[in-house]
Amino acid sequence: MKKFINLTLLFAGILFLNSCSDGFLDVNTDPKAASFDQVQVEYFINNSITGAQMNPHDAERAFVLYWKTAGRQHRQNSSLSLGGYDDGWTNDYYGSLSNWLRTANQAVFVGEQQIEEGVNFAYTNNLIQVARIWRAYLMSEFTDNFGPMPIDAFQGENPEFASVESVYNYMLAELRDAVNSIDPGTAIPSNIHRFDKAYGFDLEKWIRYGNSMRMRLAMRLSEVDESNARSHFEEAASGPIITTADHAFKVQEGGGWDDLTAVMSREWNAQILSATLNNLYVGLGGIPSERQVAERFQDKIKPADYMGLRLENHFGIYTNDPSAGFWLDGLPQNIDPRAYKAFIIPGWTDNPDFSHFPSWTQDAFTTERNLMSESGEPLKTIDATGHWNAAPLGNWGDKGPRNQLAGYVGTTPRLSQRFRSGNDERIFFAEWETHFLIAEAAIRGWSVPMDAKTAYEEGIRTNFEYWGVEEYLGEYLQSDSYNRAGTSVNWDHTTEPPATVTKRYINGYTNEEGTYQFTYPVNHLYSNGNVKNDYLTKVITQKYLAQLPYLPLEAWNDHRRLGLPFFENPSVELPIVNLPALNQGNYMESRVTFFPQRVRYPSRLSNENPAGYEQAVSYLNGPDAVLTPLWWAQQ
Predict the structure, then answer these.
(1) Does 186 fall in a domain?
(2) Which domain holds residue 105?
(3) Global pTM value
(4) Is the pLDDT of residue 202 over 60?
(5) What is the CATH number of the domain that holds 96?
(6) Interacting residues of 398 by C-beta distance below 8 A, sequence separation 6+
């Protein structure tokens, strides 16, 4: 016979729950609140994990327009990429995140009350620990976006905001205790496995996830509290961790319009190749395009020393993007083999991963576009079939409207349909991340299960398996070829690239040939711009590429923490209102003030809880602004 928690106790919180809206205050809702038909711990766990997959409304705002944009996993020339934000998007996401956290809190509270009243199952304690591990993830999502957040609310007390440092210490302690409190010998019955869409309540996998999450969060503190970071990391890494695809935390996506709908499924989001990704992909690994593309694209492949058409009157050039001002009228000689899998070449319409979105127009199939003259007449028509390009962000001034080519759906590589149709699995933590974390820890001299090179190469190997490009692995790992950021793959090749390399181009207006001194970008955010090809740059470059496309928040986190990999500055033909520090006198530098650092709190917090809002902002060490760095990030 099923045992149920005292419903009178639960009902006591319902009125309070219903009196709160779906906004910020929901994260502080009394965890005693629950409805009569939701009194088993597994129900709450299921609702929280399912909700956090994000319905299309939330996913578009948080995952696509905020995380993927800030992490440069696609080119979105608005919002966070240029220092802006949208209060409506923030209110919507914050309300939903608060609900997921509230439900995770209820799972813990209900389980603890069942045990206290003696109406629990033998496995109830294990469900509580699963909920605590999941709650720690949700807390990290919260604090990595906004910053300070309440902790006391999780014990049902009157909530007080805590600093990011305190939140991190709490999460790390929670993960340690939750993992250690799981009893693997007390299995969770198969009839409730369906309430855990990630692991089916496989306790061994939850232990691995808890330890790996602790490694992730510990590494976040590497630049501000290394002793604490090292202690937590080493302890977590000594236990069971995520090392194979079977261990990964992932949830099957679907179609339609519910919480399990694919997070990148909205057809109107083009999700085109970013300049950041392109500079990392091109040349990296030395794998020839001719071995990767269809026969009909073979004549599109260009020599390695060719930059393309120079069209500086139609592209932003006040940027440190080393490819700015050029349009490659073909395919690069060599490119990372994951690039053509992740982003499909314009015009490759018979590729099964070619995205036809938006399906109600022919934009995806239209590859001919114009460059306009100053008088508004067509100056040059370009057919971008078989062309590979990514334009920099920014305010291009008058050049923007004159360029009908760059950033257009049909002329630019766009995200594979694999991730947009609802047939894939959304990844929250993959095996390659564990290996790249270990590689970074080894570089720092921490005690970890394997050496840095082994972990680094294992991270690449497992990600190549994910993309189905294992055939290139051996050659790739031995490559000394630099990408456009000046980084190579080969672990033992740490020679810095030359300052400049002579390249060829064709003047796009006169068709005259010329030479160009290609300059590898200087990334002042890392090691004062003195290195481009050291061990840590290699690790984070590979980690960044591997996290595409399901972990954009982690990509953004690493850039905020380390300044790696190289992110180009938006071009400033005209000033960018929300990036006031960036101008034509310093656009060749890399500065913290040129990149988004967080998401502002929603307006309803200051309106409905002004005291709480002031407390939260007091812990920011700066204004409630997109450009205010979090505690663990570069300042």
Answers:
(1) yes
(2) 7-252
(3) 0.95
(4) yes
(5) 1.25.40.390
(6) 374, 573
